[in-house]
Amino acid sequence: MTVSSFTAKVASRALPSKTKGERALQKGQQTKQLIVNAALGLAEQIGLEGLSIGALAEVTRMSKSGVFAHFGSREELQISVVREYYQLFSDEVFFPAMNAPRGLPRLRALFANWMKRVAVEIQSGCIFISGAVEFDDRPGPVRDALASSVQTWLNAVHRAVLQARDEGHLLPGADAYQMVFEIHGLILALHYEARFLKNPGAIERANTGFENILRCYGRPSSQPSAIGSKA
Amino acid sequence: MTVSSFTAKVASRALPSKTKGERALQKGQQTKQLIVNAALGLAEQIGLEGLSIGALAEVTRMSKSGVFAHFGSREELQISVVREYYQLFSDEVFFPAMNAPRGLPRLRALFANWMKRVAVEIQSGCIFISGAVEFDDRPGPVRDALASSVQTWLNAVHRAVLQARDEGHLLPGADAYQMVFEIHGLILALHYEARFLKNPGAIERANTGFENILRCYGRPSSQPSAIGSKA
Fold first, then answer.
1. Do B45 and A171 touch (CB under 8 A)?
2. B148 CB near a chain A CB, below 8 Å?
3. Residue A170's beta-bridge partner residues?
4. Is the minimum CB–CB distance between A42 and chain B shorter than 8 Å?
5. Beta carbons of B175 and A201 less than 8 Å apart
6. CA distance B150 to A91
7. Nearest to B87 by CA among B132, B116, B127, B115
8. pLDDT of residue A9
């Protein structure tokens, strides 16, 4: 069964009461979604710059013109992948953390979910990190989409830090931008040292680093005692 | 004047007493060095993977066969670039710091020199960072050369941390691997946020982060009082 016939089957099964026009539209949207999913998987492995209509046609077993019909250009495809990843990231990392109480519990949940995501990406790669290297000196809409996705996420972490400070869980003088910068550094070091250097213990170090940051900016009563003593 | 005639001129001027054979050898070495320098400049901009004999021939205004005569393969060229960068990094960052007294002064000097290097690379790019993304899932000698260069450098920072602990400048229980991980994170966050996101203030945040780490692992008497209070 081809990818498109599979899509058509799913579409027709899911909504049998639609009109012919509605079904065609839905089929188109689902096929597009299927292509974007495949493109995201490919981009995580070979980078956004490695994406091409041809490679995607091969992966999805569609014709090049079939893939091209859904994305007017390679750039549009890349932007769709960035948006898809951002959606996935939000669903896995951001939204579940919103169930935690405002303040330190929510900040902890955001970091814990972020860590879970990065742990998966030690194997697969992460387009927020590889994309930053690919597009750091290439202005244009792909770079803009990527940078604004990352910045939106960092702003969410910043907001959580401010709330934790407002709730009195952090020192009144805690610099929220500074904290977010340091937390971001832990995530980047984890990805670098675990994925590239293959150093063991990077996940534990990122977690310990987070506790050290909370201790640095936290009220004395909320501070744990140890900072590690391995070597 | 072509690049190679310039090289020949420099070579003949510098050592007029050499024999013909020695001069030819020296000329060859200097031409190779010139190509490696050009390759490093190119790799910082477009990545190690972007390097090709053809692109280098264009930049150095040599023939492809002329460039190829010095590097048997593209891989050998990439490895030469990694070694050249490592040498440059050592000369700028590592060796000058060895003049500082053992312990905290030397650790501070290593970090300060590292920061100077990264500040330059906010404009140019850094092959220790872009190379990690390019080669994180490509086993082989280029990846090995890159990873072992980075690891050698991180080991040097680790040694400086151990010495600072031995000198009593850090808490006896300070985890040196943990500290190096956190410091590495600051450098990666600086590069990411300044180069890709173009966020202002990243250099100051990396410096503040380093002081926070020293405060976290330092003896109480050596701790400054503020942790920042901007937002």
1. no
2. no
3. A218
4. no
5. no
6. 35
7. B127
8. 36
- What count of other Cβ atoms lies within 10 Å of the Cβ of residue B30? 17
CATH superfamily of A75-219: Tetracycline Repressor, domain 2 (1.10.357.10)
Strand partners, B170: B218
Q: At what angle do helices A104-124 and A202-217 cross, to 10 degrees?
A: 160
The per-residue pLDDT of chain A, averaged, comes to 88
- The model's pTM is 0.86
Which segments of chain B have a pLDDT < 50? 1-15, 222-230
- What's the pLDDT tens digit per position in A96-129? 999 999 999 999 999 999 999 999 999 989 999 9
Task: List the structure tokens of B217.
Answer: 């692992």
Residues of B in contact with A188 (CB under 8 A): 185, 188-189, 192
Other Cβ atoms closer than 10 A to B166: 12
| Range with the poorest average pLDDT among A5-14, A159-168, B110-119 | A5-14
Who contacts B161 (Cβ-Cβ below 8 Å, separation ≥6)?
B107, B170, B174, B176, B179, B180
Domain residue extents for chain A: 75-219
- ipTM for the predicted complex: 0.86
